[in-house]
Design brief:
This protein is α/β, with parallel strands linked by helices. The chain folds into two domains: about 180 residues, 3-Layer(aba) Sandwich (Rossmann fold), CATH 3.40.50.2300; about 160 residues, Rossmann fold (3-Layer(aba) Sandwich), CATH 3.40.50. The chain contains twelve helices and twelve strands. The chain has a five-stranded parallel β-sheet, with helices on both faces. Strand 8, helix 9 and strand 9 form a beta-alpha-beta unit. The longest helix is centred in the first third of the chain and has 20 residues.
Length: about 400
């Protein structure tokens, strides 16, 4: 009984420093090194969550074949956030408190990722974001968060640079879903476009997953923009383009903030817009034809796993896990703070996703590509040093296709 006070003190200290020492201690006792994953395996973003999982699966096989980390095989502990922010927050709690992971990768959407930032701050656990593009996911300045992908301002800047290089019309309309992702991309494009001398003639928000956008598209048509910039997920991107044809809406440039317009399914007939996707431009973080070493090998591994070719969402997950493993190896520790410090110092000059190194805000300054759907396939058309073909401009009117 004399040792009971010491036992209670130990428990108190373990609880107080949870998510620092206890996570590491539990990892030391485990036979595998556990890394937490939050993504959308069900719900409206399930297709993207599955892309995440495929990318993680390929990275996991490579890393474990090379010996894992700290002499252990890596084990991924998944939490399905169901495409809901409240569930994503619950995922942080479960992964840290019950699974004792010392690092988390996720989530998929900007909405869910922004929701979990306060939770990882409270838990003192590093978070690597693979795909959330809303710039406000980094607004807290937390030392615990790191983003692999480029953000909405980088998207807008790359698109405007492309339009200027093409001598595109200076009238622009923005169509965006009323979520954190959509609003962040609207705000970024509005600011960047106006600074570059564009006239933003219309800005239209919509409710995601609506079956009918015809009235919205007619309002856009009435403003006669030379360029339209969409911020939409896959279902809406497909519906918007089909209904743009019905409305005979003919801007010279259909551009977008990636996501649905950059999904592997978007140019397909069964899951996307099919022929209505033709000639659309999108920002892209990666394509199998990107000139970064290992891109084609990842494409081959993905095709072997799924029978399909990947879009950039799978590659971002792959790169996030490679980066996490490199940080764990560099830290040589299962302590969250040590892994965080290693992420701050990480410098990976060659990955299939390009160089990875985080600035003082936790942002990896990733290059943004501009793609165009041509003959049902994404082709890199800008910047010139990365282009595989010239863009087709202006977009042919619907009745001339």
């Amino acid at each position: 009984m004399a040792n009971r006070p010491l036992f209670h003190l130990a428990l108190l200290l373990c609880f107080t420093f949870a998510l620092q020492g206890c996570a590491g201690s539990q990892q030391d006792a485990d036979s595998t090194f556990k890394i937490g994953i939050i993504t959308s395996l069900t719900g409206s973003a399930a297709a993207f969550g599955q892309a995440h999982k495929n990318g993680y699966t390929i990275a996991l096989a490579e890393l474990n074949a090379a010996g894992g980390v700290m002499g252990k095989k890596i084990e991924l502990v998944y939490y399905d956030d169901q495409t809901r922010p409240d569930q994503a927050v619950q995922g942080v709690n479960k992964l840290v408190d019950q699974n004792h992971v010392p690092i988390i990768l996720g989530a998929y959407s900007s909405e869910n990722t922004r929701a979990i930032v306060p939770a990882v701050n409270q838990k003192n656990i590093p978070l690597v974001m693979p795909t959330a593009t809303a710039d406000n996911v980094l607004e807290t300045g937390s030392p615990w968060v790191f983003r692999i992908c480029a953000g909405s301002t980088a998207y807008a800047t790359a698109t405007v640079d492309f339009l200027k290089a093409m001598d595109a019309p200076k009238s622009l309309a923005i169509v965006y879903e009323n979520t954190n992702f959509g609003e962040s991309n609207r705000e970024a494009m509005d600011k960047v476009a106006r600074a570059a001398g564009f006239d933003v003639v219309d800005s239209e928000a919509y409710q995601a997953s609506s079956p009918d956008y015809k009235a919205l598209l007619q309002r856009v048509k009435a403003r006669n923009p030379g360029v339209i910039y969409f911020a939409s997920y896959l279902l809406d991107a497909s519906t918007l383009m089909r209904q743009a044809s019905q409305a005979n809406l003919n801007p010279q440039y259909y551009t977008s903030a990636g996501t649905g317009f950059a999904a592997a399914e978007f140019p397909t007939r069964d899951k996307g817009a099919g022929p209505y996707a033709e000639y659309t431009f999108s920002v892209s973080q990666w394509l199998p034809t990107a000139r970064w070493k290992g891109s084609m090998e990842f494409d081959e591994a993905f095709f072997k796993l799924t029978g399909t070719h990947p879009a950039y969402h799978a590659m971002e997950a792959y790169a996030a896990l490679l980066t996490a493993a490199a940080a764990i190896k560099q830290a040589n520790s299962a302590q969250p703070a040590a892994i965080r410090d290693a992420l701050k110092a990480i410098d990976l000059p060659e990955t299939p996703f390009g160089p990875i190194k985080f600035d003082e805000h936790g942002q990896n300054p990733h290059q943004v590509l501009i793609t165009q759907v041509l003959d049902g396939k994404y082709r890199v058309v800008y910047p010139p040093d990365a282009a595989e073909t010239a863009p087709v401009v202006p977009t042919p009117p619907w009745d001339k296709r």
